[in-house]
Structure formats: structure tokens, C-alpha cells
């Protein structure tokens, strides 16, 4: 088996797994945590691709969020920088919402 087949099979495996809402939730949460550590928007936007693909045809998902399929792929491949409102729409249409909790206070010693 060559590297391309392994990569394709992993992508297919990931997309299949992300159809499970709990796995998708954990995947998104972990990617948001990583973003908060390193501020790497490109990696975060790329992580949305398999989540969207797990929803079905990318063209249908793109229509739901009000863009075309090509634009979504440009987002995933870091060719364009989407507005924050579009990122929120994408997350909403993935079936998730934001929830905020206070940070634990750090007391000086």
C-alpha cells in the first residue's frame, strides 16, 4: 500500500467517524483548544473540511451557509480568509453552538 492510499483511507476513516456527533464534538473542541494555544487559523480552518464532508455533499453544505463549494474549499486550503460570521455559520450548520464558561481564576502567590 502506498502513502497516497493510506492518506486517502485515513481521510475516509476520519469522515466516517465524524458522522458521529459526539466524535465530531470532541474533534472540534480539540481543534479549538489547539487554536487557542497556537493561534494558527490556517490549521483550524483546515480541520473544518472533514467535519463538513461528514455532513454529505460539500456543495449542499455550502448552499446552506450561503457560499459556493469552491469558496468553501478555498477556506479549507487557506486561499481566502473568511469573515468571523461565516465561521460561526459553518459551526452552526455543523450542528454546534458556542458555550462560554468563566476561566478559573489564577491567584498570585
What do these coordinates show?
It is globular, with a radius of gyration of 16 Å. Helix 2 packs antiparallel against helix 3 (41-53), helix 3 crosses helix 5 (69-76) and helix 4 packs across helix 5 (69-76). The termini are far apart. It has one domain (3-93). It is mainly alpha-helical and 109 residues long. It is built from six helices and no strands. Helices cover 66% and strands 0% of the residues.
Globally, the shape reads globular
What is the number of E strands?
A: 0
Helix content: 55-70%
Report the β-strand fraction as a percent range. Answer: under 5%
Going by helix content, strand content and strand pairing, the class is: mainly alpha
Report, as a whole number of angstroms, the end-to-end distance. 57 Å
Low-confidence stretches at least 5 residues in length (pLDDT < 50)? none
Quaternary state, please?
single chain
- Tally of separate domains: 1
| Rg computed from alpha carbons, rounded to a whole number of angstroms | 16 Å
User: What is the string of SSEs from the N terminus onward?
Assistant: HHHHHH
Q: So how many helices?
A: 6
Query: Biggest sheet, open or closed, and with what strands and sense?
Result: none
What value does the average pLDDT take?
Answer: 91
Amino acid at each position: 500500500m502506498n502513502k497516497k492510499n493510506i492518506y486517502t483511507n485515513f481521510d475516509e476513516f476520519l469522515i466516517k467517524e465524524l458522522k458521529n456527533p459526539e466524535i465530531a464534538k470532541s474533534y472540534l473542541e480539540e481543534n479549538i483548544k489547539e487554536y487557542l494555544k497556537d493561534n494558527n487559523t490556517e490549521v483550524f480552518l483546515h480541520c473544518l473540511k472533514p467535519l463538513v464532508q461528514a455532513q454529505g455533499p460539500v456543495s449542499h453544505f455550502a448552499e446552506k451557509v450561503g457560499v459556493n463549494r469552491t469558496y468553501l474549499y478555498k477556506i479549507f486550503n487557506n486561499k481566502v480568509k473568511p469573515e468571523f460570521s461565516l465561521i460561526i455559520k459553518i459551526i452552526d450548520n455543523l450542528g454546534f453552538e458556542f458555550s462560554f464558561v468563566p476561566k478559573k481564576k489564577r491567584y498570585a502567590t
